[in-house]
Write a structure and sequence with these properties.
about 250 residues; alpha+beta; Diaminopimelate Epimerase, Chain A, domain 1; 2 domains; twelve-stranded mixed sheet; 18 strands; about 20% helix; globular
Length: about 250
């Protein structure tokens, strides 16, 4: 079966967020998919069988993943396996994907509204920074800091962040060159820091759209690799857009 490594939310190799994409020829066991994801040792490995799409970190299966969905769509478009709109059946619902003429890929994801939340005990110490605001979505804790520089230079205690009762911790601030910036830490699912996180932008989009009064925004994720995510908040949906680059393709031997 075919196996690819794709850098998502970038148009430059070795930037953005790398994901593995496995095009399955036939059904396989969950244990086998988890073993492959652990072997690939990327933040996410996507497995596609027909229109059914699943995602595994090196440690667990997850219910929503933006960059590995983008990577999967990129593989289908770039290999000629698909040309028009795509629909993926996932644990997070049906996800629709389209490709624009400039090779920008747009994904229709569920919005994750952020509600104010108390600051969890130990969070400020774990982050090494003082939150301006704290909120929580259905998946993650969202922490706003005072500046882009505070997000960029953040050096959290990853082990201490694992005590937070959430899939991950989104740290964000107003941007200087972009509308907002973010970083994403998810030690609870085996990802200490994710380079660029599509699903986190399902919360960042409604959060910053409400703050800035505009539905369409651009976010920069300030990881070491970096990446850009274009977002549009549309009611209970978020449109995530970005580019991707294939850096490796081959055959997976059972």
């Amino acid at each position: 079966m075919r196996l690819f490594t794709v850098d998502a939310f970038t148009d430059t190799a070795f930037k953005g967020n790398p994901a593995a994409v496995c095009l399955l020829d036939s059904p396989v066991t969950d244990r086998w998919m988890q073993s492959v994801a652990t072997e690939m040792n990327l933040s996410e490995t996507a497995f596609l069988l027909g229109d059914s799409l699943r995602w595994f970190t090196p440690a667990v299966e997850v219910t929503l993943c933006g960059h590995a969905t983008l990577a999967t769509a990129h593989v289908l478009y770039s290999t000629g396996a698909a040309t028009g709109p795509l629909e993926f059946r996932t644990a997070g619902g049906t996800l629709t994907v389209n490709r624009a003429p400039d090779n920008m890929i747009t994904m229709d994801f569920p919005a994750k509204e952020v509600t104010p939340a108390p600051t969890p005990e130990g969070l400020e110490k774990a982050l090494g920074a003082t939150p301006v605001r704290v909120g929580k979505s259905a998946l993650d804790l969202l922490v706003e800091l005072e500046s882009q520089e505070a997000v960029r230079t953040l050096a959290p205690d990853i082990a201490a962040l694992a005590a937070v009762d959430a899939r991950g911790v989104i740290v964000t601030a107003l941007g200087e060159e972009t509308d907002f910036v973010s970083r994403f830490f998810a030690p609870n699912v085996g990802v200490p820091e994710d380079p660029v996180t599509g699903s986190a932008h399902c919360a960042l989009s409604p959060y910053w759209s409400a703050r800035l009064g505009r539905p369409s925004l651009t976010g920069a994720q300030l990881s070491a690799r970096g990446g850009l995510v274009h977002v549009t908040h549309a009611g209970d949906r978020v449109h995530l857009a970005g580019k991707a680059v294939t850096v490796l393709s081959g055959t997976l031997h059972l």
